[in-house]
Design brief:
The complex is a heterodimer. By secondary structure, chain A is of the alpha+beta class. Chain A folds into two domains: about 160 residues, no CATH class; about 100 residues, Winged helix-like DNA-binding domain superfamily/Winged helix DNA-binding domain (Arc Repressor Mutant, subunit A), CATH 1.10.10. Chain A is built from ten helices and seven strands. In chain A, strand 3 and strand 4 form a beta hairpin. Classes of the chains: A alpha+beta, B alpha/beta. At the A-B interface, helix 6 and helix 10 of A face strand 1, strand 3, helix 3 and helix 5 of B.
Amino acid sequence: MALKGNLRDFTITQLLNLVNLAKKSGTLIVEGPGEIAHVSFRDGKLAYAMIGQEDNSLASVLQRNNKISVPQYRILKERTSRMSDKELGLLLINAGYVSQTDILTSLQGYFTGVVRRLFTWVEGFFRFEIDVTPPVDRICVRVDLENLIIEGARQLREWEQLQEEIPSLDMALKFTDRPGANLRNINLSVEEWRVVSYVNPKNSMRQIARTTKMNDLEIRRVVYGLLQAGLVGIVRPGGAPLPTRTFPNNNRDEQKSLVMRLIDRIRSI
Amino acid sequence: MQTVKIVVTGPFSSGKTEFIRSVSEIDVVSTERKISADAEKIKETTTVAMDFGRITVDEDLVLYLFGTPGQRRFDFMWEILSEGMLGFIVMVDSTRPETFREARSILETFRAYAPTPYVVAANKQDRPDAWDVDDMRVALRLDPKIKLLPCTARKKDSVKTVLLELLFSIMAEMDQSGSEPSGR
């Protein structure tokens, strides 16, 4: 039976565990929120990964790891566009720009980084294709999956806890009334600042996530931090229709009389 | 005949069924099933749909008490049960701090369903290993304005106190609210 399904039922960590235990070879294709990722394995080890339209060429990965400079990257892109990554790698090693270790560690770091990003995908579809292999012109690596699986399991626990803390992203945020707190004196990360700038009872957390291009896990993680710091509180979004309370009639005095009757009755039990 | 309802919610095994049973004038219409998962076998049965108790106020008015299923996999029932409630009570087992996080989450979920008054009942306060209410307030991250009431669900007087405090909160909210009352 084909290995395919929904990430809600089978998480990335579980998939990696399966690939690892069965020593599978092939490519896991994950269709997540807005992006598609391809992760290839050989004999149960991570070999290659790409996500969306992101440039995962050797030159780009080396530049991101500061193994080559931006001008060097530009020159390589211009002059070696017809060269495969394997040929380019040999060229750079022979020219003394980088070592073989530089290339392998940079690629391993990039590919495992792609898998780490997949851990944050909790919605989407996956399929495992045994016939799909990495592009022949790319350099493959061999990374044991055990550490990634442990990391993924840890993230999954975090996700479950965050979901318990912040069950609904349809709620909004508001700044807490703390007269002493001065936001300018608080050290926030870039992500936290991005969220803080949209804190307003009119904006649901889901809207903030969409605007700041964060997924469900990332927005929950940031909001959880802000909640713990006591900077924000969760409120019902302004303007959202409030569910009505069922009083048998609309008259305020009669409603109060009804509650008084309830109080008297409970007292008499 | 007028009917109103109050919802009793809280984590698995927090004492919701017992709470309703203590004050209901009818045998609680319970939808309990034997627990199959070993991990959840701290008691033999659990509520899978709802508990249902009744208090007749007078000829024209009946109060229904609805207890929600405590296990998360039955949470599709929560929103249905919360519709039209006057207020809700969150039961927390004072002897099981591992459920406090879940209680907090349930509280937030119900707050999202409806902006009705609520109180939190710290149940099983008669047990020697029960957490102190003040400590629970910190652990549950409850605002000082929210009522956290010591409770023993199997004692009628204790349950009455919790219900009365909720009704007082409902009354206070009606007094404070400047907007037009809602109704159906």
